[in-house]
Amino acid sequence: MGSCTNVNQQGRQQQQQHEQHHQQQQQQDSLYARRTFTDSFHSFVDECCRLEAEARPPAAQLLTAHPFIKQLKKTPMSLASILKSVK
User: Fold this and answer.
1) Is the pTM of this model over 0.90?
2) Which residue from 51, 57, 63, 65 is spatially nearest to 21, judged by alpha carbons?
3) What is the sign of the dihedral through the CA atoms of 32, 71, 60 and 86?
4) Same-domain status, 26 and 66
């Protein structure tokens, strides 16, 4: 009987995790609908924020090779000055 209880608890936990993930995805989708930054910026942030280290590019690669950073290098403004105006 104890093993059935464990299986049921695991099933409930998986269902809760799935529901939480679904809610987070809906929140993220609504945030993206109101975004004011470029696709390149969002791509950069998404890559930086990947939870799984194996799926996340190394920082050196992101800070030198990502299109968002390359684009910044072509402008006379710094990233800090661009972000300063954001509230």
Assistant:
1) no
2) 51
3) negative
4) no
